[in-house]
Write a structure and sequence with these properties.
The chain is mainly alpha-helical. The protein has one domain. It is 69% helix and 1% strand. The chain has 15 helices and two strands. A two-stranded antiparallel ribbon has the order 1-2. Helix 2 runs antiparallel to helix 3, helix 9 runs antiparallel to helix 11 and helix 12 packs antiparallel against helix 13. The longest helix is centred in the C-terminal third of the chain and has 32 residues. The protein starts with a helix and ends with a strand. 28% of the residues are buried.
């Protein structure tokens, strides 16, 4: 029981999470005053998913998981999977972007929108935004973050330096995870621009990289990669066995997120007039390439199709 009740910590991320929830609730309140009851209910349901993602993130960072991650490599792998996969998935599915935007009052909200979308001075900012939101950049940065932080010298440095560990390592996992899942999971008002085949390929490619990394840390080595686990007081599990167990977790967890996501993508495509034959043809490069219209989130039935479309401060909701 002590493993659960002891070693909780007050991480700076907690303050950020609490502030984010308060801002989100303010935005929901402002949107509620200018929306239909049905839309407000849908936003509320999505907010629970978003808050669930924040809870998962907090469990990974402030619970005993983070404490034991500094002593056991396999616990650190559990923490990484929570931060890179499950927390970002829930955050993206919760679609908090519009409520967070409406946290601001009308004048600053409109001023920011005019500056970002119309000002010449914001052109570099718009270019940076397009670069960050580029699907290829999202997938590459996600996998690069996963691989680079498992390089022994980088990993040891991050584990010994708390600033690097909290803000750079964990921060890169969360940010790249959100960017990655924005290419897969609908998150209003952000639109998915790639086809179902591209999404499936990104998932399979990421899963393969995870599997290769896990095999490299277990089957293809007989020594511990990370010095920080070689002489931990009170730990009787050998560093090699600990690393192999962590590699197994990384390997198995790949199936827990990849397979359900692939099923979700295929079902979503088939439910919206994309037949299995079309998917196979596109995968094999047969026939003319589809325009991507069938796969766009903007063409999928959303809350707007049920209650109509309105514009608030230039933003469709």
């Amino acid at each position: 029981m002590n493993y659960i009740t002891r070693h909780w910590s007050l991480d700076p991320f907690v303050v950020i999470a609490v502030a984010t929830v308060l801002a989100h609730e303010i935005g929901l309140t402002r949107l509620r005053g200018r929306s239909t009851i049905e839309r407000s209910r849908k936003r509320r349901r999505r907010s629970f998913i978003f808050y669930g993602g924040l809870v998962v993130m907090m469990l990974a960072i402030v619970s005993p998981i983070d404490y034991w991650a500094s002593r056991y490599f396999f616990v650190h792998m559990i923490e990484h999977v929570l931060l890179m996969f499950f927390a970002p998935m829930l955050i993206v599915a919760g679609a908090p972007w519009l409520p967070l935007y409406f946290t601001l009052s009308v004048k600053p909200r409109r001023a920011i929108a005019r500056f970002v979308y119309l000002s010449e001075r914001a052109r570099p900012l718009r270019a940076l935004g397009r670069l960050i939101r580029n699907p290829w950049i999202a997938v590459v940065s996600f996998n690069a973050s996963m691989l680079l932080w498992h390089i022994p010298s980088w990993y040891d440095f991050g584990d010994r330096n708390q600033f690097v560990h909290i803000w750079i390592m964990h921060g890169s996992y969360i940010v790249t995870g959100i960017l990655f899942w924005l290419q897969i999971i609908p998150s209003y008002p952000i639109k998915i621009t790639k086809s179902a085949v591209w999404q499936g390929s990104a998932i399979l490619g990421t899963n393969v990289i995870m599997t290769v990394l896990a095999i490299s840390m277990s089957i293809l080595t007989n020594s511990s990669w990370y010095d920080v686990y070689n002489h931990v007081p009170g730990v009787t599990l050998s560093p090699v066995a600990d690393q192999q167990l962590g590699a197994a977790i990384l390997w198995v967890c790949g199936d827990f997120w990849a397979l359900p996501t692939l099923i979700f993508i295929v079902r979503r495509s088939l439910m919206h007039d994309v037949t299995a034959t079309m998917l196979v043809d596109q995968l094999l490069g047969r026939g003319s390439e589809r325009s991507g219209r069938e796969f766009r989130w903007s063409d999928i039935t959303t809350e707007e199709s049920a209650v109509g479309t309105s514009r608030v401060d230039g933003v469709e909701e």
